[in-house]
Design a protein that fits this description.
426 residues; mainly beta; four-stranded antiparallel sheet; globular
């Protein structure tokens, strides 16, 4: 009996160790298979639902949904007349998908779902047939922006119901790689490999796009992605990562001499994927950077990044997805002394939009789990799930994908369990 119990204990510890190791490094997820074709360029989420594009020329693909942070996936293509989906975007209960290329039946453009991807409706009123190859989408409220491979940008003011030309002020040849919304302006990075630019225009009533090509960000240099986090603009380009603190008027390089393909973030944390060399991570909005490649056994090309439910997801051109638990990423040890007892502090700010900090004290080392629940008690995010040393920590929760309301956060460490309430107001 003792031998059986000993073996069981060893097996449990081994399983626990494996789980902890996998939580602190990258792991590859199989969604539909791997191969050449459209790849995995688009992510979106509505609450705890995660959506991803996955297309392989030899076997197909479309849009896939996971309700458990990428462990299991189901295909949600009902109503999609074109499964070559390039990009995804969400706003409230609306989910948008953009087809990369028209198929033989001339189907493509923008598709809209209002039931978490269970069914889709083609929504292309106002788009010409040549504009049905969508490169990027961005939504804020009921306003949606779409960039087409045919060098045009469109805007919809009715959740994608109808589209109008939004090209005033842009050059004749432009391909909008990505959009971001900041300070009631929409920013777009234009993707010409010979003369990339960054443009800004008011979301409501702006007459023309204004070129923001300054200090090297976009100067004869393809801009892959423009992104906003913590009231700061960032641009991932072929020559590095740039940062703007003045609404895009000026840019300074913060990660030079790298071919940056995508960037994402939460709180003060940034993660950037490179064409070669894996990932770089910054916990101070780009002041300092470290390599974040644990778990990578090769040097795959990454083209997309997304943060969801306590994980960061990365996509490749071969329709592969890598996942890593945020765990200690974004967790800052803010104390130099060992606390006397376990403490879970009230989050700050509270109410908040969209990010807040949660501070906690650990008198002992061990496994720590910090989980977010909605008002109905449903788990919606795991902020920390890792072994931490004794100390005082601050964790960030970025809730841009979640609706306004009351949420609860729960800390479990050793025998200590405590829950507190917080309010998200958008």
């Amino acid at each position: 009996m003792r031998l059986i119990m000993k073996k069981a204990a060893i097996a449990f510890l081994l399983f626990f160790f494996i789980i902890q190791i996998s939580n602190s490094q990258w792991e590859k997820i199989t969604v539909y298979g791997t191969g050449n074709g459209g790849g995995t360029y688009g992510f979106a989420s509505i609450g705890s639902n995660l959506f991803v594009t996955s297309y392989i020329s030899s076997t197909g693909g479309g849009v896939y949904k996971s309700v458990n942070s990428g462990i299991n996936w189901s295909i949600v293509n009902n109503g999609l007349t074109n499964i070559k989906i390039r990009c995804l975007e969400s706003s409230g209960s609306y989910l948008y998908a953009g087809a990369d290329y028209m198929n033989s039946s001339n189907n493509g453009g923008v598709f809209v779902s209002v039931n978490n991807g269970n069914s889709w409706t083609e929504s292309n009123t106002g788009l010409t047939p040549s504009d049905k190859s969508i490169i990027s989408l961005k939504a804020t409220g009921n306003i949606v922006f779409a960039s087409c491979l045919a060098y045009r940008v469109y805007q919809s003011n009715d959740n994608g119901g109808t589209w109008t030309n939004f090209n005033q002020g842009l050059p004749t040849y432009n391909v909008g790689n990505s959009f971001t919304i900041f300070n009631n302006n929409v920013f777009m990075c234009e993707g010409s490999t010979l003369s990339g630019r960054i443009y800004r225009r008011s979301v409501n009533g702006g007459a023309n796009w204004v070129s923001l090509n300054t200090n090297g960000a976009g100067s004869d240099n393809e801009v892959r992605q423009i992104y906003t986090v913590n009231n700061t603009l960032f641009a991932a380009t072929n020559s590095g990562v740039y940062k703007s603190l003045d609404n895009g008027q000026s840019w300074n390089v913060i990660l030079p001499n790298v071919l940056a393909r995508a960037i994402t973030g939460y709180g003060n944390n940034l993660i950037c994927c490179l064409f070669s060399g894996g990932f770089r991570y910054s916990s101070d909005l780009g002041v300092t950077w470290t390599t974040l490649n644990e778990g990578l056994t090769s040097d795959p090309v990454f083209v997309s990044l997304y943060v969801h439910n306590g994980y960061v997801f990365a996509g490749t051109p071969r329709a592969e997805i890598y996942r890593r638990a945020i765990g200690t990423i974004g967790i800052t040890n803010i104390g130099t002394t060992i606390p006397e007892k376990f403490v879970l502090h009230q989050n700050y700010p509270n109410p908040f939009n969209p990010s807040t900090n949660i501070e906690f004290s650990l008198p002992k080392s061990g496994n720590v789990k910090l989980t977010i629940f909605d008002a109905l008690g449903k788990e919606v995010a795991v902020i920390v799930n890792d072994n931490l040393k004794a100390g005082i920590y601050k964790a960030d929760w970025h809730a841009s994908a979640f609706p306004s309301g009351i949420y609860f956060y729960k800390l479990v460490a050793k025998d200590f369990v405590q829950t507190k309430k917080m309010i998200l107001i958008k």
